[in-house]
Design a protein that fits this description.
By secondary structure, the protein is of the alpha+beta class. It is built from 6 helices and 18 strands. The protein has an 18-stranded mixed beta sheet that branches. A hairpin with a 4-residue loop joins strand 16 and strand 17. The longest helix is centred in the N-terminal third of the chain and has 14 residues, at 71-84.
Amino acid sequence: MKMYQVDAFTTELFKGNSAAVIVTEHWLDEALMQNMALENNLAETAFVKVIDAENYEIRWFTPTTEVNFCGHATLASSFVLFKDYTTARTIQFHVKDLGVFVVSQVADGKIKMNFPVRRAKKITHYPEILKQILSKPFKNVFLNHQAYIVEYENSQDVWDEKPNLELFKQWAQLQAEATEQQVVLDLAITAQAAEPYDCISRYFAPANGIDEDPVTGSIHTAIAPLWAEKLGKNQILAYQASARGGKLYCELLENERIEISGYAKLYMQAELHL
């Protein structure tokens, strides 16, 4: 069985966010997929099941759990499919609970992904522990079903933030244990940025096995609409300010859809012995 490792949302090796991609004709056993993701120890391992040359199903696993949406691993998977599995320039991912993602690749290699907008609402009653987890002052707190999104006064505070990830992890795990319902366990911070970027962000998910995610496509289905509204524009150039860094080209579309685009770079192909 072949596995690829791809750096997503970058044109440079060792930048962006790495994802492993395995393309298969049939779903593997869930426990096996989780063990493979743990072995890879990347932010995400994507498993893609072929329907036909233009249609696929996709699932995403962190080292500790399956997640319901991952943007950078979708980009990495699309890159692999366009490279080795299809001559089509437009493909579709059929995703449980999220419908169909239409993905296309243009002449220069940029991959455009059409996702549903997942807006975040401003909240005034947020967990007070955020003030202990975060060391920098913040303006506003927003929430969608993926993460708390905290808006900072300036981009330098986003760069300089050193959150107490152990406290955040303990708090998130307590929230998860206190209810049988799904709770928000992740945290993003964002601010307006200087040119050429419109906004920057960082993303933390220690309770899901990822202390800091290098580039998070999924959360930009909320962050990009937030800044589009604030700045009065439909096209947002976003930068995720992790150690590896990544660039996301975002465009708000009609019918509560968003196109998030980026480049990818192949790092490795491997043969798995299972």
